[in-house]
Amino acid sequence: MRIVIAEDTVLLREGLAGLLEDAGHTVLARVGDAESLLAVVAEHEPELAIVDVRMPPTYEDEGMRAAVEIRREHPATAVLVLSQHVESRYAVELVSADGGFGYLLKDRVLDVGEFLEAAARVAGGGSALDPVVVKELLVQPHDGDPLAELTPREREVLGLVAEGRTNAGIARQLWLTEKTVETHVRSILGKLDLPHDGDTHRRVLAVVTYLRASAV
Amino acid sequence: MSRMSPLRIAAFGLAGAIVLFALLDAVRRSDGEEWIPLWLYPLVLAALLAPTTVGLLIVNRQPRNVIAWILLLGPLSLAIQSLLWVSFGEGWALQVDRATWPLLYAWPVAVAFVFPIGRLLSPRWRWAVAFTVLSFGGFIALALVDPSPFDGDDASVLNPLADNVVGEALRVDTTFWPFLLGMLASLFLGAYAIRLRLRRSTGVERLQTLWLAWALALVPIVLLLCMLSGLLGYALGVTIVDWIVFPLILGIWVATAVAIGVAITRHGLYAIERLINRTLVYATLTALLVAVYAGVTIGLGVLVGGDSPGVIAVATLFVALAFLPLRARIQDLVDRRYRRARYEGVRMVRAFEDEVRDGVRAPEEIGGVLADALRDPLAELLFWLPASDAFADARAEVVRLPQDERARLEIRRDDARTAVLVHDPALGERRDLLDGVLSAAALSIEMARLRVEVRIQLAEVEASRTRIVEAGYEERRRLERDLHDGAQQRLVSLGVQLRRLQLKLPREAAVLSPAFDQVVDEVGAAIGDLRQIAAGMRPARLDDGLSAALHDLARTAPVPVEVDVSEDRAPASVEAAAYFVACEVLTNAVKHGSASKVAVRAVRENGTLHVSVADDGVGGAVVRRGSGLAGLRDRVGALGGTLEVVSPRAGGTRIEVVIPCGS
Questions:
Q1: Of A162, A164, A72, the residue nearest A121 (C-alpha)
Q2: pLDDT tens digits for B368-380?
Q3: Is-contact B229 B290, C-beta < 8 A?
Q4: End-to-end CA distance of chain B
């Protein structure tokens, strides 16, 4: 996979690059600010850009804004945004709007396997939403909310669906067979009155959009 | 003393001549028969010498002052009579005397035309001067050749010009009438000139004219007294004219000279209003007392007959009893009529003080009241702040002293400056009004100053409290940043490096891998802890606005929280305060209030942020010292806001917070 990294902390940037290269990916460029990021994306048209939210000069949300612009200007480049803390609003909006976008807390990197899988999923046009964000979306169903009708296991599966995982991923996570996961998903979508088709990505969009609408 | 100028020498010469003539006259009278009592003679001399002295004083300062020369020449013309008497004998002296008496009135009329600036009111007034000169000159010329014999006591003296051809031809005894009436008209012209001058002039010139007007107005007053005393003399058969009226008439000339002197030299010019006031009071008082005396004596005289000592005693008693109350009453009436501005100004201040006492108006409004009382709409009162060496207006805003054409008057109390009155410069000439109104308002001004000072100090304290709280929020924000971007970032880097090492472990060291997992998990836990701490400092979500932060808060709350927050942004410190209020109340609601549902609302209206947090818990919450709620109230108060707690027992708790947003 051809990747560019935008992260202003050199130590972390190099660590990330090393990690990705160890896993056999190609890191085309390593930059420390949003402007350089846009430049290298335009130059290399990579499959994935890994972007820190806070970068110079203001350390506000340069990374997030650059991510939006990359998705608009270079649809072929997927973006995985890394954040120090939960800023779910932007993230949920971006994930529910389109594929090829991921949002994870930085320390997810430490679970290398999960991280690489999420990166690959996003680069492949899927999505990744940090479990913390998903947890916030799921936290408290209102009275009469169809979410209240889900069983605990179904809620667990719904959360993993929202994170952007495939049925296989969910099955691996929960120590279930893919077939059981398939059954759960069918039941959940039925209860939430969401359309069911085979496409994992469209399923994620539908679920996140649903959760976002019911949470706010 | 400077070199004597020719004009000064001439003036001293004139004065010397007048003194000489006056002394000659005195010598003459001392051996002749008396036409006035001897004791009056010093007064006559004074009346003659007063204008001379004043004229000389003015010439010494302003050698070209026309009025000074009129003052010197006027008495000279009278003094010359004495010379004639001594040189040519009684007949000539009497003839000149009966021809030149109008000169006694000529010089005051001359003064009236040009007073106080030495110029006529307008070129057209030259006609008035010409008319006056013609009237006086014509009369004197005619009278000089009058062939008719002297009358009265002097009938025995022979007219040296008896039967002269010119006098007979001119038929003086009838032709003098137009000139006499012309002289009378000139007197009125002089009075009219002063009246016009009073109306047209302002400031110093008006005060100067007022002095002369005061002196000349004494004439009708004295005439009135003459009539009264004449009436009294007639009733009692006692002639007191010589004793009272004659000295008064002579006194007028002294007073006129002194008034002109004061006006020209401008020394003590400002006392005129007080002088006029006193004159009016005592003249009216005297007239009334004489009337009372006359009324009582005439009335009792008719009843008991004759002028017994008893009648006079009773009349005197009446006058004595009436004096004090009458004086106070007349003073009040005169104040109301002739010091109307001062009288009303002082009354306005008193009325204002009453309103302040009744709580209807605030003491700070004294500035506006002064502007009304002094009738100067541009007047401004600025209070002195000794601590900061600055001035403040009634709204307790620190201001600079205006640098414009207005005059400034420092107001002091107990030797300390309290305020500065900025006013129309014209007001400076009305010291009587200013002094009266300001001394009446002194206490109010001091009270207002103290209140303004306290308000300014309070505002400063509040501003510093706000700054401290805002600095606190800023510090939290910085700490949160430092935690996220510093420590947390380094821990992630550390974890990544550990993972890379772990992945590169040689196959034979695979036994170490679980240990790596454990260490990385610890690092992950540390990162989680730091994130928690940072969020407690100040939730990063506040960067996205209060709405986002409160929604986050609601999601993580253990009970359902209904959030209704408008999306528009408020200043960071206001949003932070509102957020922490919601946090604290939410925690309390769950911890103590056993609430099952909480509603958080935040709306912006009229430049304030209203936050209300309501739960359905047990209620009974009170703000105790040192409690979380008290801390919140301090934070909100520091931003100029309020925090109200409505918490009836078993009725849930509702906290209402209002914070101004400053925009």
A1: A164
A2: 999 989 888 888 9
A3: yes
A4: 72
Neighbour-count burial of B71, counting CB atoms closer than 10 A to its CB (0-12 exposed, 13-18 middle, 19+ buried)? buried
Residue B106 makes CB contacts below 8 A (sequence gap 6+) with B74, B77, B132, B136
Which of B372, B526, B366, B502 lies closest to B446, judged by CA?
Answer: B366
Determine contact: A56 vs chain B, CB below 8 A. Answer: no
**B540 in A contact zone (CB under 8 Å):** yes
Query: Do residue B541 and residue A86 have CB atoms under 8 angstroms apart?
Result: yes
Gap between the Cα atoms of B469 and B635, Å rounded: 7
Which residues, 6 or more positions from B155, have their beta carbon under 8 angstroms from its beta carbon? Answer: B149
Q: Does residue B327 sit in helix, strand or coil?
A: helix
Choice among B28-32, B100-104, B350-354, B563-567 with the minimum mean pLDDT:
B28-32
Beta bridge partners of A79: A49, A101
Q: How far is A179 from chain B (nearest CA, A)?
A: 31
Backbone angles phi, psi at A67, to 5 degrees: -60, -45
Side chain identity, residue B201: S
Q: List the single residue in B492, B544, B548 with the smallest CB-CB distance to A109.
A: B492
Say if CB A177 and CB A187 are below 8 A apart: no
pLDDT at B44 over 60: yes
Q: Stretch B389-393: mean pLDDT, rounded?
A: 88
In whole angstroms, how far apart are CA B155 and each of B30, B96, B112, B149, B152? Answer: 22, 15, 37, 7, 5
pTM attached to this predicted model: 0.50
- Which H or E element spans position B195? helix B172-200
Residue among B69, B96, B71 nearest B82 (CA): B96
